[in-house]
Amino acid sequence: MPRPILLVTCFEPFGGSDRNASQEAVMAMPDKIGPFDVRKACLPVVFGEAGARVCELVDELSPVAVVCVGEAGGTQAIAIETRATNLRQARIADNAGQAPQDEPVVEGGTDWLAATLPVGDMVAAVEAAGIPAEPSQSAGTFVCNDTLYLVLRHRGGSDVPAGFLHVPAGDALSNEQLVAGLTAAIAALGIKTGNRGQSHLD
User: Fold this and answer.
1) Of 68, 166, 176, 200, which residue is the catalytic one?
2) pLDDT tens figures, 133-144
3) I want to staple 22 with a disulfide (CB 3.0 to 4.6 A). Which of 8, 10, 92, 164 is the partner?
4) Residue 113, exposed/middle/buried by CB under 10 A (0-12, 13-18, 19+)?
5) Which of 10, 49, 71, 81 is catalytic?
6) Any catalytic annotation for residue 166?
7) 3-state DSSP call for residue 55?
8) DSSP-based three-state secondary structure for 37
9) Catalytic residue from among 49, 71, 144, 154
10) Does pTM surpass 0.85?
């Protein structure tokens, strides 16, 4: 019987940097975690395009869950997002030169969508691995939030559990710590699988 697929995404460098902590950590993660085959994808830092790519991969791979990972400055912990907001408000331009201001992610969409991964369990698992973690009430208004909103909306926020983790930019945590923290978070998902493409969380 094939192992269930877990989709984990990260982002390319942006804003003039030649590094992205999410990319370095995700690409160094194991290809198998617990019962899952981990499929990794690096996304463009482009409004709309990143979210569309994740939605395409969801349809293509039928994963049991989606874990998106991005980097955030000014934090010392792995932040596990609780929701996405229907707002694009760019502090800097994305990698396509777009800098939307006060625009919705989806015209007419609901103001926010709740992440559908077990945030509390994931925070506890990361902390148990000796890595600082915290729940977060805001994924920002840049491409990370944009991506999470589009992914949650794509499957009605329920068919395929999805969520977003922000890792610290810079040297607040080593890459080894980030890999350990992300691996612990994924191992805590508690997903039971039935038919391919169907899943639920304990």
Assistant:
1) 166
2) 999 999 999 999
3) 10
4) buried
5) 81
6) yes
7) helix
8) strand
9) 144
10) yes
